[in-house]
């Protein structure tokens, strides 16, 4: 694939490319004394001639390291997720108007004990993403905060 062959959907993912520091904001029940000690990072880069966006994350224990592969799919994207626990998941993804969303509401490679949703909002210069992971125990009708996190370049 050459640059002139890139679809607008792939070009839209350029906003993620690069290295980010990721800091979770753990909820009180996690019992974390020093939230900064949980900071990790993720790097997004193009793979296979720009056909896929690959993300690789690292974080201190107990947070798992992970790898994601993102590709256009219909009106949005699919994000394939793999982590160091051996977990494999498939998320529907959108990236539009400064908002990045991931949604998992159906079983895939892992049982679906609860639905998951991530919503990340980019700041105007796209150097910070204020995000939150949410979970639903009623099939996605109501959502509750799991934890917040911030991505910074």
Describe the structure.
The structure is a single chain. It contains one helix and ten strands; from the N terminus they run αββββββββββ. The two termini are 28 Å apart. It has one domain: Lipocalin. It is 3% helix and 52% strand. It is mainly beta. The protein has a ten-stranded antiparallel β-barrel with strand order 1-2-3-4-5-6-7-8-9-10.
Question: What's the SSE blueprint?
Answer:
Blueprint: H1 8-12, E1 18-25, E2 40-47, E3 52-58, E4 66-73, E5 76-83, E6 88-96, E7 99-104, E8 115-122, E9 128-136, E10 144-152
Antiparallel strand pairs: 1-2, 1-10, 2-3, 3-4, 4-5, 5-6, 6-7, 7-8, 8-9, 9-10
The CATH homologous superfamily is called Calycin beta-barrel core domain
Largest sheet: 10 strands, antiparallel, barrel
Overall spatial form: globular
Mean of pLDDT: 92
Low-confidence stretches: none
Order of helices and strands: HEEEEEEEEEE
Second-tier CATH architecture: Beta Barrel
* DSSP strand tally: 10
Task: Report the top-level CATH class.
Answer: Mainly Beta
Computed over alpha carbons, the radius of gyration is: 16 Å
The proportion of residues in beta strands is: over 45%
What are the main properties of this structure?
10-stranded antiparallel barrel; 153 residues; 52% strand; 1 helix; single chain; Lipocalin; mainly beta; globular
């Amino acid at each position: 694939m050459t640059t002139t062959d890139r679809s607008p959907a792939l070009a839209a993912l350029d906003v993620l490319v690069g290295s980010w520091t990721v800091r979770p904001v753990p909820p009180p029940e996690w019992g974390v004394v020093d939230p900064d000690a949980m900071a990790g990072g993720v790097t997004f880069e193009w793979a296979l001639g720009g056909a896929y966006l690959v993300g690789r994350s690292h974080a201190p224990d107990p947070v798992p390291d992970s790898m994601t592969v993102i590709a256009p799919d219909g009106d949005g994207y699919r994000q394939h997720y793999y982590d160091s626990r051996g977990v494999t998941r498939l998320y529907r993804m959108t990236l539009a108007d400064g908002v990045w969303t991931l949604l998992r509401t159906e079983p895939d490679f892992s049982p679906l004990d609860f639905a998951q949703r991530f919503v990340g909002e980019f700041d105007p210069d796209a150097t910070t993403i204020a995000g939150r992971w949410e979970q639903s125990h009623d099939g996605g009708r109501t959502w509750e905060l799991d934890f917040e996190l911030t991505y910074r370049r």
